[in-house]
Write a structure and sequence with these properties.
The complex is a heterodimer.
Chain A: H1 3-21, E1 29-30, E2 45-46, E3 52-63, E4 69-77, E5 89-92, E6 96-102, E7 120-121, E8 124-125, E9 129-130, E10 136-138, E11 149-155, E12 160-165, H2 170-173, E13 179-185, E14 195-197, E15 205-207, E16 211-219, H3 221-228, E17 242-245, E18 271-273, E19 297-303, E20 309-313, E21 318-323, E22 326-327, E23 338-340, E24 343-345, E25 350-355, E26 381-382, E27 411-417, E28 434-439
Parallel strand pairs in A: 1-2, 3-6, 5-13, 16-19, 18-28
Antiparallel strand pairs in A: 3-4, 6-11, 7-8, 7-11, 9-10, 12-13, 14-15, 16-17, 19-25, 20-24, 20-27, 21-22, 21-23, 21-25, 27-28
Chain B: H1 7-12, H2 17-25, E1 53-62, E2 85-92, H3 98-103, E3 115-118, E4 123-131, E5 145-147, E6 164-165, E7 171-176, E8 182-187, H4 192-197, E9 201-207, E10 234-243, H5 245-252, E11 266-269, E12 315-318, E13 322-329, E14 335-339, E15 344-349, E16 352-353, E17 364-366, E18 368-371, E19 376-382, E20 396-402, E21 420-426
Parallel strand pairs in B: 1-4, 3-9, 10-13, 12-21
Antiparallel strand pairs in B: 1-2, 4-7, 5-8, 8-9, 10-11, 13-19, 14-18, 14-20, 15-16, 15-17, 15-19, 20-21
The chains are: A mainly beta, B mainly beta.
């Protein structure tokens, strides 16, 4: 069996696992130690009752879509193995956050928290570091090489999506994987009713159980190989060959969170939603509408790469409700959020985008069929994520031998980087920064939960 | 197949190519007299509703500036004169006979035909796949993906993994009922790194329900603005695409590029590099196409190398008129379109009026609009007063170009080229009312 076929077998296993493991997705505040309870999709938050996180530098390998493996660095939770990207830290607005960095590498390492103010290092203001000659050596205080430690702390005053990353030799260390996401949640959240808000102000509510992350990054494997071998690397020759979402390339992006065959890449990027339905009641006094689904989903985009990444979700325009930890409001409080079909996120930026999918035409095989004669099976090429039917919730007939990945007539709508040469893994096209939104039929449906 | 079954081909299952091979190459090439008929029949034998538009996907040749050469890739040694560059693309074959449709194989155009639809109206677009004459080994299916169409069902989205695609010699009709005015783009989504780069890219507009109302003198608007702020007298599409000559040469020579080595040799507006961007348009109106007896495109005399690049980027207007520039970027890198000496108001982005959900006006003035891959923007400028012409011409000349200057030369050499065109302002009353975009 060609090695790449293994990838597809593994991918098939992913869906089996989706079947076996799917539990009602809910807001996910877990410690890595209880990873087996993590839902298959959505953001996996790492939380701590005291908002204290001990991060230890670590090294490991990640798997690419061309079956290459690449040496990486990361910040791992104390006592936990290497993971890529580093943990998603979640805190509430106003929390005093403490991050203890333990450095096991043979060079100085640090963490900067762009968007946070009044960051302390070992209790004193965190400041840029200079050598005796006045040359900048680090953007902030370091944990010295070979066992050094530094403790950062700050008050997370502003809700939003933030990046944390190395501030030391960033051009090299960030590209080696020393980055992660920090989510600050507003106290306005109402998790008991499955409602969250991106910000303390503004119209940015979303369904708490449909919160997803698209963290975009790039890898030049020659840099990583040089670092692994202790060799120097000429940064003028830097040329990414891989582009990743949440540390994975498609098709791994749609595998579940903590897929066991991706031991160091825990974060999936499959979004799973139900159609938008603003009606709490069924018509004609029919009682509560089980498909009632008035809130959008949330995607938190982060770019930890070197250039703009234009991410294009098909099938809906997201509404950009915030950027870089600021809600899109004008000075008078007016809503300046805007819709986009190509979300062009710059280096170091974060964009918070709500979205939903609405069954505008309400096509139905009996009452409202698609207004064309559907060609015979042999006159179409079927995609593996096509149910065989145009209709949401219908499993149609597929050609003999078709892979058939759908479960309950759900839709799969792609979302991908539109700088299309990046939709490639060093020679394997149609991989890399792409994922899907899975739209399940309205509740009640036949989908395994 | 292009080579032995490999990892690459397995990955391509996602694009449907293997299924296309099974479906298209093993079945009889002609399945009865319905082959390529623009009007398929359903199982009951009743005639299908005629499509509004009928497009064909195939390969072809276009003409880019032959000098400077980039040997061995540019000009392509296989290109028939006067052409230089191998492409995949679409053609508008609406109303052609079956034989005429067949004749368009190897006659694709770039950029793809413009088309537009009215808000709320149903548009039926039938697509057929004529195959690739230069690459009979490639049996890729094709699709038409309307980029940015909100809440589409996968069946009509043209993304081949979640939907269906059109094998060689078959037809499929996409049905759109657009609800959101604005500027969009479309492209084939099969093997889309390759098919998009090879030229299967075009633009599509949705005209607002407000059209015809009296907020602005012309009664033509970009959006349902309620106040005429997006009213315009003339409109011009500006589709940005790019050519990496090696990738195009590879496709005509049965080779594969390493896409992560991507570079831009030619930046194009509407499929042409400056100064060809200034040449007149051929047949642009998709609903009233003008073609020769074979159904082929008719070149403008003196511009035979642009026979399959019919869409001009030359902007012409009378002083005082409002001009809508509809920008879209289906290249792979970011552009920065600049108007020298003119200011433009950005009134829409990604087919969205620049107005917040609580009616906050977020439009803005600029002379440079950046466009990432897959983004669109609507910019309106008011033509300044006529200044008496320049360079012996009866019009004033302003330039519109990509400030990302690597896209503003041809093949990276000295001189001007690539994504550049002119805006020509005439005295009041010189030009008649515009009836077709880009004319």
């Amino acid at each position: 069996m060609p090695t790449s076929m293994l990838k597809w077998v593994r991918w098939g296993l992913a869906l089996v696992l989706v079947l076996a493991l799917l539990t009602a997705a809910s807001a996910t505040d877990v410690q890595r130690a209880t990873a087996q309870a993590v839902p298959t999709d959505g953001i996996v938050c790492t939380t701590n009752a005291n908002n204290t996180f001990t991060l230890t530098t670590s090294t490991g390998y990640i798997g690419m879509s061309d079956d290459n493996t690449v040496f990486m660095w990361g910040y791992a939770l104390s006592g936990q193995p290497f993971q890529h990207p580093s943990p998603v830290l979640c805190v509430n607005q106003g929390a005093t956050v403490t991050v203890i960095l333990q450095n096991t590498l043979a060079e100085d390492v640090s963490i900067i928290f762009p968007g946070q103010e009044n960051v302390l290092a070992n209790g004193a203001p965190a400041v840029p570091q200079f050598d005796g000659g006045g040359n900048l050596t680090s953007l902030t205080n370091v944990a010295p090489a070979n066992g050094g430690t530094v403790t950062y702390s700050f008050v997370a005053n502003r809700p939003g999506t933030f990046i944390y990353q190395s501030g030391t030799d960033s051009e090299r260390q960030v590209r080696m994987g020393l980055f992660g996401a920090l989510l600050v949640r507003p106290t306005r959240d109402d998790p008991t009713n499955n409602v969250r808000y991106a910000y303390a102000d503004g119209d940015n509510a979303y369904k708490a159980s449909t919160e997803f992350m698209i963290m975009m990054s790039e890898v030049d494997p020659m840099l990583n190989q040089a670092v692994e071998r202790g060799q120097s690397f000429d940064m003028t020759l830097y040329q990414p060959r891989y582009w990743l979402v949440n540390g994975r390339g498609y098709p791994d992006t749609i595998a579940p969170n903590y897929a066991p065959w991706l031991p160091s890449q825990p974060y999936g990027a499959l979004a799973r939603i139900n159609p938008y339905d603003p009606n709490p009641e069924l018509p004609n006094n029919g009682g509560p509408n089980p498909a009632y689904n008035p809130l959008p989903a949330m995607v938190r985009y982060l770019n930890v790469g070197s250039i703009d990444f234009p991410f294009h979700p098909h099938g809906n325009n997201g509404r950009v409700v915030g950027r870089d930890g600021f809600p899109l409001l004008d000075a008078a409080g007016g809503d300046t959020s805007f819709e986009k079909f190509s979300v062009n996120v710059g280096p170091g930026q974060t964009w918070d985008v709500t979205f939903f999918w609405q069954d505008n035409e309400d096509y139905d095989p009996d009452t409202n069929p698609v207004p064309i004669t559907i060609p015979n099976l042999q006159n179409m090429v079927f995609g593996m994520f096509f149910s065989g039917s145009p209709y949401l919730g219908n499993q149609g007939t597929k050609p003999v031998g078709d892979t058939g990945m759908t479960q309950c007539g759900e839709y799969y709508i792609i979302a991908h980087n539109h700088a299309l040469f990046q939709l490639d893994s060093w020679g394997v096209p149609m991989t890399g920064p792409a994922t899907f939104t899975r739209v399940d039929p309205p509740v009640p449906n036949a989908c395994p939960q | 197949m292009r080579k032995t079954f490999s990892r690459r081909d397995l990955i391509k299952i996602a694009g449907g190519t293997v299924a296309a091979a099974a479906g298209a190459s093993l079945l009889p090439r002609y399945l009865g007299k319905g082959w390529l008929s623009p009007l398929a029949t359903n199982s009951a034998g009743a005639q299908e509703i005629a499509p509004d538009l009928y497009f064909a996907a195939t390969d072809g040749w276009i003409g880019l500036p032959p000098s400077p050469a980039l040997p061995p890739y540019h000009p392509d040694d296989l290109a028939p004169a006067p052409f230089t560059t191998y492409i995949f693309g679409f053609r508008n074959v609406t109303g052609l006979t079956v034989d005429q449709v067949r004749y368009q194989k190897m006659r694709a155009q770039h950029s793809a035909p413009l088309f537009w639809a009215d808000e709320g109206a149903t548009l039926r677009l039938q697509l057929t796949n004529l195959g690739l004459q230069m690459r009979p080994d490639l049996v890729d299916a094709h699709t038409l993906h309307w980029h940015g169409f909100r809440h589409v069902i996968p069946f009509f989205d043209g993304e081949p993994m979640g939907s269906v695609s059109v094998p060689i010699d078959r037809n499929f009709t996409y049905v759109f009922r657009p609800r959101d005015p604005g500027t969009y783009m479309y492209h084939c989504h099969v093997e889309d790194i390759e098919h998009v780069h090879m030229g299967m890219t075009g633009m599509v507009f949705v005209r607002p329900a407000q059209n015809g109302q009296g907020f602005y003198q012309s009664g033509r608007y970009a959006y349902n603005d309620g106040d005429g702020s997006t009213g315009y007298d003339r409109e011009f599409s500006m589709l940005l695409t790019e050519v990496w000559s090696e990738a195009h040469w590879d496709d005509s020579h049965i080779q594969l590029p390493e896409w992560t080595d991507y570079r831009v040799d030619f930046g194009l507006i509407n499929g042409r590099a400056y100064p060809d961007t200034l040449a007149p348009s051929g047949s642009v109106d998709p609903f009233n196409p003008v073609r020769d007896a074979n159904g082929d495109l008719i070149p403008t005399p003196g511009y035979e190398h642009l026979q399959y690049q019919p869409i001009s980027s030359l902007v012409t207007c009378n002083e005082g008129e409002r001009v809508l520039l509809r920008f879209a970027n289906l290249g792979f890198t970011e552009g920065a379109m600049t108007t020298a000496g003119l200011k433009m108001r950005i009134v829409g982005r990604d087919a969205t009026l620049m107005r917040g959900i609580t009616d906050v006006d977020t439009s803005y003035l600029t002379n440079t609009i950046s466009l990432g891959a897959g983004e669109s923007a609507d910019a309106i400028f008011t033509a300044p007063a006529y200044r008496g012409g320049s360079n012996g011409q009866p019009y004033d000349t302003y330039l519109l170009y990509n400030r990302a200057t690597t896209h503003g030369s041809n093949a990276g050499t000295a001189g001007y080229g690539g994504q550049m065109t002119e805006i020509r302002v005439y005295p009041t009353g010189t030009l008649p009312v515009q009836t077709v975009p880009n004319t």
